[in-house]
Amino acid sequence: MKLEKNKAVKGHQSNKTSPSSSRGEKCLAKFTSSNGTVYGSLTLDIRKAGDYSQPLPVAVRISHDGKKTFLRLGEKYTMEEWIQLCDYEKTGRRSQKAERDELKALMDKVKDMTNQIIDEGVFSIKKLQDRFQGKQDDGTSIYRIWDEYIQKKKDDGKAGTARVGRDIRNRFIKDNGENVKFADIDHSFIQKWAAKMRKAELSTTYTGIVLRSFRTIVNIAISKGFIKGTTKEMFKDSGYNKKASRKHEFLDVPTMRQLYEFWEKDEVKDKNGNKLFIPRDKHALFRDLGLFLFMYLGDGQNLADTLRLEYDGWYFATHGKQLRFFRHKTKERNEDASEVIFPVTPEIKKILDKYANEPKLGQRVFPIMSQFLTPEKEIWVIQRYNKYIRKHMSKVAEHLGMEQRPSPTWARHSFATNLNNSGRVPYKYISDSMGHSSSSDITSNYIGTYPLEKMLQYNAYLLKEPKQEDKKADLLKLLKGMSPEERAALMEEASK
């Protein structure tokens, strides 16, 4: 908090100000606890003061049962500046009002903390000091709650969530330090942190992820009684629920077709016909392009699901015509909504023939990530291959003269966008194919929603655009399904 202090103080000539001035003159504000046993006043801590012309710490002086303590607020004033500030408050003048209001708001946090401990039935000066310093009797702090949350996610096998939690905790410390107290965390604190991240030019999406993660930790602290209030009010207008639009991050059907044909050709040469890569580098480039295309054609998978994909019972029950997985990102929340079944199209079959393991029940499809890795090691492999694919897709795009530089996430966005833009694929099919289905009835657990022929028909639009004759056929089918009266009304409307 940067306070604008008026350094030009009139009426005080001496470099020393005697502490004999009345307490009322040096007290900016006061409070009495909810049970009337604790008294607080906003003042200067003069206990170790010598020269009163030097800045002195602002503190809340707490008195209880004949004992007292000073809880310093991190601001300093000379005695002259402080007395003037108190005079302004006493007379109701507007001078430095914002400055005074901020100081009183800090005192109000101490008041709320005092009343909270009283409500718990365990008030003492020592407990208030510990709580003010961000500690509980057992050393609890917002940092400890965060650490316990991260450890629980690790114990539950949710290494990705734990890793995100750790990274965001590090961001919190970088921006706010290691001494944030429970009493500090309110709407103003959240707003200031969000402003810091915007100033650091962090993306809207990342800022939203950070704040949503922190909101989870604050909710835990609220449930334990360490913080009062609700996150609904604390995070209001902070942007925690905002995401930057990523609608532009897709490749259209002609571009995807170009990429597939380039992969199928399996050669990359310069204008003079010279090979651009040694065999090992060429293999890695086409392998990662193949993974990108597999993710796109396989119902817009993310990389984690691709590398964890297995030959399960469904694959063998359909004689290798379909593959199935549960979206790793969502299955812990709603397993029914996470199931994705996609057809092994001719293009996918070619990619599998070139890079996949031999089909064996329970074996992973691609020989990239072992099934025996720890969750933490899996995250490391996924992140490494994410970088590889980005690097190799950038080289492919440059060679083909593409403006875009797609990352693995573009495969998912492109799948949804291109099927939707085809005008031939029902929205429900797109949603179900991406694991967004909310169906939870028992019957749907035993039957496939779409027959293989329909899946192949719809997914064919991932690499081809609807032809004009297709549109005529659709129109003819529509007209045949109308009654004579409906067709007559349609023709009359068309003639207007």
How does this model look, in words?
The protein is elongated. The relative contact order is 0.07. The chain is about 50% helix and about 10% strand. α11 packs across α17. It has about 500 residues and is an alpha+beta fold. The longest helix is centred in the last third of the chain and has 26 residues. The protein has a four-stranded antiparallel beta sheet. It has a two-stranded antiparallel ribbon with strand order 5-6. The protein is built from 21 helices and six strands. It has three domains: about 110 residues, no CATH class; about 90 residues, DNA polymerase, domain 1, CATH 1.10.150; about 210 residues, hpI Integrase, Chain A, CATH 1.10.443.
Highlighted features:
496 residues, elongated, 3 domains, alpha+beta, hpI Integrase, Chain A, DNA polymerase, domain 1, 8% strand, disordered N terminus, four-stranded antiparallel β-sheet, two-stranded antiparallel sheet
Number of strands: 6
Largest sheet: 4 strands, antiparallel
Radius of gyration: 33 Å
> Total domains, how many?
3
How far is the first residue's CA from the last residue's CA?
A: 69 Å
Question: Would you list the SSEs in sequence order as H and E?
Answer: HEEEEHHHHHHHHHHHHEHEHHHHHHH
Helicity, as a percent range: 40-55%
By CATH, the topology of the largest domain is hpI Integrase, Chain A
Protein structure class: alpha+beta
- The second-level CATH architecture of the largest domain is Orthogonal Bundle
The CATH class of the largest domain: Mainly Alpha
Give the percentage of residues in beta strands: 5-15%
Let me know the average pLDDT.
85
Strand order of the largest sheet: 1-2-3-4
